[in-house]
């Protein structure tokens, strides 16, 4: 892999920060805040490089390198027609999945969608969707046009009915469930055999990052992006 590819690979964690301030906050410890009593002062010290054993990015470098990773994973230019191409919806979930459709179809990125929703009164369900797996099997145009919501089914990676307390687990084109005694259910990527931990209280694993998406149409949506390969 080239030096450029290596840097892009190491910079993908920058996507978890929506702003430079969030990036600086990740370098500040609770002890720092307790001692300094001021968030802005703590951020300034972090920006100067005193709180990081490695490289601390300037604001300009942060935005430039974050945009390069974003362009790689979620390119705007598309050489072929996509289900999301003509979408004008402003729903955050539709917007984020539109950015990911091409990369998932090309096998650059593998996105897992966690959804918790109430599709009908008295029925609450949650589960994980293998986005690329479903893209190959369904017409997503009604979803991207805002005419249909995300729908969970018992054939998805996981499906949980909160009323009956029943859980279904399934292997998909890209993932298989792995049950560990201490960690519980993990998911092994069949592309690179790396394990993903979808527990929201833990890091998702190597080459993976998590994003929470807020939408009025769902109780909760979380996207897990697993980088399969970089283009040099």
TrEMBL record:
Keyword Cytoplasm: yes
Keywords: Cytoplasm, Nucleus
GO cellular component: cytoplasm; nucleus
Listed Pfam families: DUF4464
Main location as per UniProt: cytoplasm
Cross-referenced InterPro entries: DUF4464 (IPR027887)
Subcellular location: Cytoplasm; Nucleus
UniProt keyword Cytoplasm, yes or no: yes
Function: May be involved in spermatogenesis.
Entry protein name: Cilia- and flagella-associated protein 299
């Amino acid at each position: 892999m080239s030096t450029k590819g290596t840097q892009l690979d190491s910079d993908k964690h920058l996507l978890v920060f929506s702003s430079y301030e969030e990036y600086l906050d990740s370098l500040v410890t609770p002890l720092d805040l307790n001692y300094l009593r001021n968030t802005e002062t703590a951020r300034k010290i972090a920006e100067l490089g005193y709180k990081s054993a490695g490289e601390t990015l300037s604001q300009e470098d942060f935005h430039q390198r974050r945009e390069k990773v974003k362009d790689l994973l979620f390119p705007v230019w598309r050489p072929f027609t996509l289900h999301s191409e003509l979408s004008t919806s402003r729903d955050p979930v539709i917007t984020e999945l539109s950015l990911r459709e091409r990369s998932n179809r090309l096998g650059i990125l593998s996105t897992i969608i966690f959804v918790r929703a109430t599709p009908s009164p008295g029925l609450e369900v949650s589960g994980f969707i293998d986005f690329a797996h479903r893209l190959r099997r369904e017409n997503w145009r009604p979803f991207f046009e805002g005419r249909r919501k995300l729908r969970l089914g018992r054939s998805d990676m996981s499906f949980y009915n909160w009323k009956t307390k029943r859980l279904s687990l399934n292997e998909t084109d890209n993932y298989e469930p792995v049950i560990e005694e201490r960690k519980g259910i993990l998911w092994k990527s069949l592309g690179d055999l790396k394990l993903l931990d979808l527990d929201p209280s833990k890091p998702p694993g190597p080459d993976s990052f998590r994003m929470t998406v807020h939408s009025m149409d769902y109780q909760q949506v979380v996207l897990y992006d697993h980088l399969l390969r970089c283009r040099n």
